[in-house]
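Field log, afternoon session.

UNIT: design team B
ACTIVITY: writing a sequence onto a fixed backbone
BACKBONE:
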């Protein structure tokens, strides 16, 4: 993209696709070979922001909203926020509109990688995560 406003906040690129969300907390890196990866303060901040957002989403669960509905709202919020972030640095809406496909490609690529990494982690830790959910812990 021609603008320098895309978030460069994805620690997964630094983790060689091997992040672990042991105990459903991305900060626990038990499966990461510590010789290969240093958890930087930037990565810690990234995961702490994600955990905070997940906590807000979990707080929305209840009689009036199940996880699918909350997930849809969260996905919508991410898209809306991403559109706002992507617009930073543009002066004209027409210029911004010209970059639409590149912006979409960037965010879809990022989301696809993050979703793939998290699905892999969840599958590898499925029994533990399912047990956590049964004990009342609703964090991702």
């Amino acid at each position: 993209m021609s603008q320098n406003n895309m978030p460069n906040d994805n620690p997964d690129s630094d983790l060689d696709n091997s992040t672990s969300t042991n105990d459903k907390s991305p900060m626990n890196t038990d499966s990461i070979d510590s010789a290969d990866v240093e958890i930087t303060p930037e990565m810690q901040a990234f995961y702490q922001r994600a955990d905070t957002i997940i906590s807000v989403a979990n707080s929305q669960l209840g009689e009036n909203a199940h996880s699918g509905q909350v997930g849809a709202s969260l996905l919508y919020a991410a898209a809306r926020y991403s559109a706002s972030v992507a617009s930073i640095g543009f002066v004209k809406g027409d210029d911004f509109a010209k970059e639409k496909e590149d912006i979409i490609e960037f965010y879809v690529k990022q989301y696809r990688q993050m979703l793939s990494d998290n699905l892999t982690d969840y599958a590898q830790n499925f029994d533990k995560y399912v047990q956590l959910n049964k004990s009342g812990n609703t964090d991702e």
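LOG NOTE: The helical segments are 41-59, 67-87, 93-98, 100-124, 126-134.
NEXT ACTIVITY: expression trials, pending approval
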